[in-house]
Specification:
The structure is a single chain. The chain contains 23 helices and 15 strands. About 4% of the residues have low confidence. The protein is of the alpha/beta class. The longest helix has 28 residues. The protein folds into 2 domains: 202 residues, no CATH class; 335 residues, Alkaline Phosphatase, subunit A (3-Layer(aba) Sandwich). Strand 14 and strand 15 form a beta hairpin. A 7-stranded mixed β-sheet has the order 3-11-8-2-7-5-6, sandwiched between helices. It has a two-stranded antiparallel sheet with strand order 1-13. The protein has a two-stranded parallel sheet with strand order 4-12.
Length: 569
């Protein structure tokens, strides 16, 4: 009787430990059950078994101190509901870029992000407390040790399930079979909390890259010269667009008249076949500003701003992009620090509406002030716009709400709801209409100065808006679509520029329909101003008749290169 009672107690304690582990690893179960990627029941069970087993591999080594092993999962039990909330929104677990954005966000962005999900967000917060309390309760009720043979058997099975991943073929998104190691990395990246740990590790590795870039700027060693007819007064402006789809610009053939003012401008060229360097701002900007062929190598060299500054230009960065949080030593600070001065208009310190306080037109007054006040006659500006970033209706004033019904006044719109496609597309097109007005105002003002000048507009990436049966939305999705890859590139040059540089102006028209990569921007900007250096490559300049179209790729959120040719056909 005593043996039976003792056995029952042991079983009960083991069940408590098992329940605790289920709580800590519950996001894996939730994802396995709800995943649209994993369609068959067998694969769903296989993923859950793999992700659970992955964390039980060390169990045999902690059989006599199982509570010590389990205690390490307490913070992950508390954070499990947050992981499931992310899966609820995006249908797959958090990626490296998602965790990075969470660490670098501010309260205003966070409030805008969860808009329409207040009840779910509140329930998630309460669930975190409940999960932590439930895990600790089960841990206290559970045994302090487990049977060594059972633990060893569990570890062996877990290792076997994990190794089977290497024997599994898996079709990739580009209709190619990916390597077994990629399959393993993909699955472990989704397995909570192992994936969170690996993604956070990558985040901190990125921080080291930023230090490398600062050193490259400080140790600038390139030999720079200027060629051609150099004017006494020069103004060059780079306007960086945000989440802008080339397909929604009527200047590129879109059915709606979204760019009437740009179409009316003279000496303006819109390039029709441009591939974004990456699917998100943080990866795209380093590639745009340095001309690097890979994200990692972008931080090994100075950006285009340093080249202009070293040539004698006064450089300024004016941003309407939202400032990030306390961890922000990323692209928005490292590359802006290359400029002589930096103005950040949109701080978005907390109120959900703060992100809508400044429309991009707020950039123009400081632009005019800097031009009028500066004693330097050679100026280079980077204007970093908020452009077409979600929420689209926050990016333009009411008088630009032309295409209806729109998102204006609908604060409960959910970010991932395909049934809202119509109002989102209408609002997106309204935001393009506003970009058209903003760019035209910048061009008109620079033209009025009657100096050698050029304005170059290029988006960092495009945007998905439920365009096909995949129902992709936003940008930075794991799957790269043509709507994210295809971006606008628009160049305007002044009459004075045309007179001094007829060959460069002619090249713009010649290259209008060429296959261009986002990485061409760096060399194009330098060539535009007649700046050359050791290592210059005019085959990557839209201002040169030597331009050549090589292999074009766009980097996804895992920093993998995806072929652009198939996307832009």
């Amino acid at each position: 009787m005593r043996e039976t009672t003792a056995s029952s107690i042991d079983i009960r304690k083991s069940l408590y430990l098992f329940s605790a582990m289920l709580i800590a690893l519950s996001p894996n179960i939730y994802y396995g059950v709800t995943s649209r990627e994993i369609t068959s029941l067998w694969r769903k069970c296989a993923f859950i078994g793999f992700s659970m087993g992955l964390h039980l591999i060390p169990a045999a080594f902690f059989a006599r101190r199982i509570k010590w092993f389990m205690a390490a999962f307490i913070p992950f039990a508390a954070l499990a509901p947050l992981d499931m909330f992310f899966i609820y929104l995006y249908k797959y677990p958090p990626t490296n870029s998602a965790l990075r954005d969470i660490l670098e966000t501010n309260t205003g962005e966070a409030a805008e992000f969860i808009q329409g999900f207040h009840a779910v967000a509140a329930m998630t917060a309460l669930s975190s407390l409940a999960f932590a309390a439930g895990f600790i309760y089960c841990l206290k009720k559970g045994g302090s040790s487990v049977n060594i043979k059972a633990a060893a058997g569990g570890s062996a099975i877990s290792i076997l399930v994990t190794l089977m991943t290497f024997l599994t073929s898996m079709q990739g998104s580009e209709n190619k079979y990916v390597s077994r190691m990629e399959v393993f990395e993909t699955r472990t990246g989704k397995a909570y909390p192992f994936g969170v740990i690996t993604h956070l590790t990558r985040f901190f590795i990125e921080r080291r890259q930023l230090v490398k870039h600062q050193m490259a700027v400080e140790n600038f060693q390139h030999k720079i010269t200027r060629q051609g007819d150099i004017a006494e007064n020069e103004i060059y402006v780079l306007v960086i667009g945000e989440a802008s789809r080339a397909a929604n610009y009527s200047i590129n053939g879109y059915k709606r008249n979204t760019t009437p003012k740009l179409a009316a401008q003279t000496s303006l060229t819109s390039f029709t076949n441009v591939c974004a360097p990456a699917t998100e701002t943080r990866t795209s900007l380093p590639l745009m500003l340095t001309g690097a062929d890979s994200y990692g190598s972008a931080y090994d060299r100075p950006g285009v701003i340093t080249f202009f500054r070293k040539t004698g230009f006064k450089t300024h960065w004016i941003s309407n992009q939202i400032e990030m949080g306390i961890y922000d030593k990323s692209v928005k600070s490292v590359f802006t620090d290359e400029a002589d001065s930096k103005i950040v208009l949109n701080s978005a310190k907390g109120n959900i509406k703060d992100n809508a306080i400044y429309y991009d037109e707020a950039i123009i007054p400081p632009l005019k002030k800097l031009i009028s006040e500066t004693g330097n006659k050679k100026l280079f500006f980077v204007l970093h716009t908020i452009g077409n970033h979600y929420r689209y209706d926050y990016r333009y004033p009411d008088n630009y709400d032309i295409f209806k019904p729109s998102m204006k006044g609908k604060d409960d719109v959910k970010i991932n709801d395909p049934s809202t496609k119509e109002i989102k597309i209408n609002s997106y097109d309204n935001s393009v209409l506003y970009v058209d007005s903003f760019l035209s105002d910048v061009v008109s003002y620079i033209a009025s100065l009657h100096v050698t000048a050029a304005v170059v507009f290029m988006a960092d990436h495009g945007e998905d808006v439920f365009d096909d049966d995949r129902n992709l939305f936003g940008h930075g999705n794991k799957t790269v679509s043509k709507y994210v890859a295809h971006i606008p590139l628009i160049v305007w040059v002044s009459d004075e520029y045309i007179k001094r540089h007829p060959d460069k102006t002619a090249a713009l028209a010649l290259n209008k329909d060429a296959k261009i990569s986002g990485g061409f921007l760096f060399q194009s900007l330098l060539d535009m101003a007649g700046i050359t250096y050791d290592g210059a490559d005019l085959t990557r300049s839209i201002f040169a008749d030597k331009l050549k179209s090589g292999k074009r790729v766009i980097f996804n959120t895992s920093y993998q290169a995806v072929d652009c040719e198939g996307l832009l056909q």
